[in-house]
């Protein structure tokens, strides 16, 4: 059932929800999230948001029920492998990787246990929420194992005597440490991604997706960039510009009352560290300002 409005599935609550909402807001999509609705309508664009559990998002895309979705690559890959196994549709298109939701899927075991490599996991029982990704990895290593499927509290499985090791998502490692476990093997690195269903789209939808992507590019690029202004002695200009990351094309302006110094303005592709600022100062730069950028379009 095709609707005129672009349907985007995002996580309702959880680790991806806030940043998805923030990204859409920065892209100029106005949405009122109050209430417990499954579908919310954008006020200023033909976009409907589906607020669901993240587990459902890959399937909604692969079945062609929604047009776009934001999902962690770990969940996406797990569902894709499961669907291939079941002979169900498993296609999608990756539109872009996003700048949040970073984590890794790792095998962890008792911190006192010796570990020299995947072969040490042979014939062990590993508790996980991601049996398909784990199996794909272990098959590649040629190691036999058994799983214990758990949808939550995976990290307590070894202590509870349910498994010898676990395979779970890690970001800082604090949860592992709190449970007396150590990270032994990273098997998958994940970020949130924007994906699209297969099949054709109306001209209007195609144009809208293009627009959203351009805006997302601008939002993400702006977050990673800084606007830098400083005053510099003309003779040190070359050396100063060399120190600035991504400064291919700085704007050089004369100063009103000083002939030997100029103002330099530029967009830097990364943040300026204190160390660099100190070096700039040693080269004679002064009045160094580093400003955040809200939006950009090339
Ligand atoms: P839902 O109720 O929607 O099913 P969930 O409990 O399955 O939510 P969350 O814990 O909200 O999922 O995590 C969603 C996604 O966030 C993960 O699949 C992963 O891609 C990403 N993520 C980032 N950091 C972490 C982390 N430290 N632990 C778990 N997931 C993380
Ligand atoms: Mg989930």
UniProtKB/TrEMBL annotation:
Which residue range or ranges hold the ATP phosphoribosyltransferase catalytic domain? 53-218
Query: Mind listing the UniProt keywords for this protein, alphabetically?
Result: Amino-acid biosynthesis, ATP-binding, Cytoplasm, Glycosyltransferase, Histidine biosynthesis, Magnesium, Metal-binding, Nucleotide-binding, Transferase
Its primary localisation, in coarse terms, equals cytoplasm
| MF GO annotations | glycosyltransferase activity
Broad enzyme group? transferase
Q: What is its EC number?
A: 2.4.2.17
This protein's cofactor list reads: Mg(2+)
Tell me what controls its activity. Answer: Feedback inhibited by histidine.
Q: Where in the cell is it found?
A: Cytoplasm
**Recorded catalytic activity of this chain's protein:** 1-(5-phospho-beta-D-ribosyl)-ATP + diphosphate = 5-phospho-alpha-D-ribose 1-diphosphate + ATP
Pathway it belongs to? Amino-acid biosynthesis; L-histidine biosynthesis; L-histidine from 5-phospho-alpha-D-ribose 1-diphosphate: step 1/9
Instruction: Show where the Histidine biosynthesis HisG C-terminal domain sits.
Output: 222-295
Q: Which HAMAP family match?
A: HisG_Long
Biological function: Catalyzes the condensation of ATP and 5-phosphoribose 1-diphosphate to form N'-(5'-phosphoribosyl)-ATP (PR-ATP). Has a crucial role in the pathway because the rate of histidine biosynthesis seems to be controlled primarily by regulation of HisG enzymatic activity.
**Protein family membership:** Belongs to the ATP phosphoribosyltransferase family. Long subfamily.
Q: What is this protein called?
A: ATP phosphoribosyltransferase
């Amino acid at each position: 059932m095709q609707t005129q409005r672009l349907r985007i599935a995002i996580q309702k609550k959880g680790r991806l929800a806030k940043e998805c909402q923030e990204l859409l807001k920065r892209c100029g999509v106005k949405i009122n999230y109050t209430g417990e609705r499954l579908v919310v309508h954008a006020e200023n664009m033909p976009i409907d948001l589906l607020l669901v559990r993240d587990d459902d998002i890959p399937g909604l895309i692969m079945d062609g029920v929604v047009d776009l979705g934001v999902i962690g690559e770990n969940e996406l890959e797990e569902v894709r492998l499961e669907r291939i196994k079941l002979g169900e549709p498993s296609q999608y298109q990756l539109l872009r990787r996003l700048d949040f939701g970073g984590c890794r899927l790792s095998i962890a075991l008792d911190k006192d246990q010796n570990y020299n490599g995947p072969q040490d996991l042979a014939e062990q029982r590993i508790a996980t929420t991601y049996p398909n990704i784990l199996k794909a990895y272990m098959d590649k290593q040629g190691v036999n194992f058994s799983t214990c499927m758990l949808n939550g509290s995976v990290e307590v499985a070894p202590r509870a005597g349910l498994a010898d090791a676990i395979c779970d998502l890690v970001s800082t490692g604090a949860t592992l440490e709190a449970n007396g476990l150590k990270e032994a093997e990273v098997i998958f690195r994940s970020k949130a991604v924007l994906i699209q269903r297969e099949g054709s789209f109306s001209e209007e939808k195609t144009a809208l997706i293009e627009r959203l992507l351009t805006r997302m590019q601008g939002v993400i690029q702006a977050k990673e960039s800084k606007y830098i202004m400083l005053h510099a002695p003309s003779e040190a200009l070359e050396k100063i510009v060399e120190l600035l990351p991504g400064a291919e094309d700085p704007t050089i302006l004369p100063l009103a009352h000083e002939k030997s110094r100029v103002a330099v303005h530029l967009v830097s592709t990364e943040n300026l560290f204190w160390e660099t600022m100190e070096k700039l100062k040693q080269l004679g730069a002064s009045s160094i300002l580093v400003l955040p950028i809200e939006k950009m379009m090339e």
